[in-house]
From TrEMBL:
InterPro entries: DNA/RNA_pol_sf (IPR043502), Rev_trsase/Diguanyl_cyclase (IPR043128), UmuC (IPR001126). This is UmuC domain-containing protein. Residues 75-248 form the UmuC domain. Coiled coil: none annotated.
Length: 248
DNA sequence: ATCCTCCCCTAC
DNA sequence: TAAGGTAGGGGAGGAT
């Protein structure tokens, strides 16, 4: 906080240089937020509303059947595969097939957190939130890549533009994840595959999809579909599907 | 009974 | 060399 900055180290004497620590404090806060992946994700949620209303204003998105007018809804959930890590592979295709993790630091000690790990890296037990130092213990040949926040924004917009071509009822969950109500708009698995194909063609990145008759089942179906797949839970299979889910 | 605020937790 | 922010669900409990 600027009001605290004059209490900082090296500013104890009254030589008229009190403004310097205040300015450096402000720069610190700005760089912190501009490099924070969690700030990027969190503020995007509010940002999505603008993207949505702009696209919906074009009035080109088909309206699904209201829940009251169809016996069984058709809900789709989509989630980009290891989003940030996938973007790095688009930027540098030679990373294909190698274990990759997104992180500010590549050091073997310290507490820098991994934001996203690709599926090669996950075979070693590496996952989001893990310290890079721990990840390199598990996988010394792990390739560390930087953040590309501008590209995440661009690719996220592409996903939402595609989803809104199939239905006007899109609920954003995050930068890489959304629900879509496609009740009465066609075969839900066919729509899943169309969305996946469109997105892969436009961005070169894979997105997985789950489909079922409610949001919860669709979301869990996406976990089963990953990576680079689609999975349907039919109404009469829901009980068995839920019943066999492992703990953890 | 309802509404509100605070707090804890979780998913991104 | 590191950038642990943000929104929302839901329970506890006080005010109305
Ligand atoms: N603890 C976390 C979780 C997520 N993210 C960021 C990086 C992810 O790429 C993005 C999307 O989150 P997901 O939970 O969808 O994870 P991924 O897309 O990376 O992998 P998955 O294939 O499991 O969806 O959010 C992050 O920075 N820190
Ligand atoms: Mg994802």
């Amino acid at each position: 906080r600027p009001s605290d900055a004059t209490c900082g180290v090296g500013n104890s004497n009254s030589n008229g240089k009190a403004s310097l620590p205040i300015r450096r404090e402000k720069d610190f806060v700005d760089t912190f937020f501009s490099n924070s992946r969690l700030h990027f994700i969190g503020s995007w949620k509010a940002n999505i509303d603008g993207v949505m209303s702009a696209a919906l204003a074009l009035n080109k998105s088909p309206q699904p059947l209201p829940a009251t007018e169809c016996k069984v809804r058709q809900i789709i959930h989509v989630d980009i595969d290891c989003f940030f890590a996938s973007v790095a592979t688009i930027v540098n295709p030679t990373l294909e097939g190698k274990p990759v993790a997104v992180c500010h630091s590549d050091h073997s000690n310290g507490t820098a957190e991994i934001s996203s790990a690709n599926y090669e890296a996950r075979k070693f037990g590496i996952k989001a939130g893990m310290f890079m130092s721990k990840a390199k213990e598990l996988c010394p040949q792990l390739v560390r890549v930087p953040y590309y926040f501008e590209k995440y924004q661009e690719i996220s917009r592409a996903l939402y533009r595609i989803l809104l071509r199939f239905s006007a009822q899109v609920q954003p969950i995050s930068v890489d994840e959304a629900f879509v109500d496609v009740s009465g708009l066609g075969d839900s698995m066919a729509i899943c595959q169309e969305v996946r194909a469109c997105f892969a063609k436009e961005t070169g990145i894979t997105v997985s999809a789950g489909a079922s008759h409610n949001m919860l089942l669709a979301r869990i179906a996406t976990k089963r579909a990953k990576p680079n797949g689609a999975f349907l839970v039919p109404s009469d299979a829901a009980e068995a599907f839920i019943g066999e889910l492992p703990v953890g």
